[in-house]
Design a protein that fits this description.
- By secondary structure, the chain is of the alpha+beta class.
- It has one domain: Trna Endonuclease, Chain: A, domain 1.
- Helix content is about 35%, strand content about 30%.
- The chain is built from three helices and five strands, in the order H-E-E-E-H-H-E-E.
- The protein has a five-stranded mixed sheet with strand order 1-2-3-4-5, with helices on both faces.
- The chain starts with 8 loop residues before the first helix and ends with a strand.
Length: about 130
């Protein structure tokens, strides 16, 4: 039995699944010619799973792993999008050399027995 301050087995499994999905997503992006600038970038506003660059583009990538690709797509909620946008602004403050790059918010969907699905411009920062 877990002690009160230890995470549950389900939380540990979800964390490991997330790490695995993020590794798969990063490898897939690198195969497509992206350079990974940051993984699991944490801010007071939220976390960006992957920050990737290709030519004059910086992509902030949310990685979702679910049983199906459709389930993964529906898991990127409007509330999460807002947190990712706020976190991206914090990343840009910390990395002003990328402020003039094209910026994009992507999603990488991960499901068992499927190649990752990269959704370009999955959402935008418009109000």
């Amino acid at each position: 039995m877990a002690k009160p301050d230890e995470p549950s087995a389900a939380r540990v499994a979800a964390f490991r699944t997330g790490l695995s999905a993020e590794s798969r997503a990063a490898a897939f992006l690198m195969a497509k010619g992206y350079r990974i600038l940051a993984k699991r970038f944490r801010t007071p506003y939220g976390e960006i799973d992957i920050v990737a660059k290709r030519r004059n583009l910086v992509a902030f990538v949310e990685v979702k792993a679910r049983a199906t690709l459709d389930d993964a797509a529906f898991a990127v909620t409007a509330r999460q999008q807002g947190r990712i946008i706020d976190a991206a602004q914090a990343w840009l403050v910390a990395h002003p050399e990328h402020a003039n790059f094209e910026l994009r918010f992507d999603a990488m969907l991960i499901a068992p027995r499927h190649l990752p699905r990269h959704l370009l411009a999955a959402f935008d920062a418009s109000p």
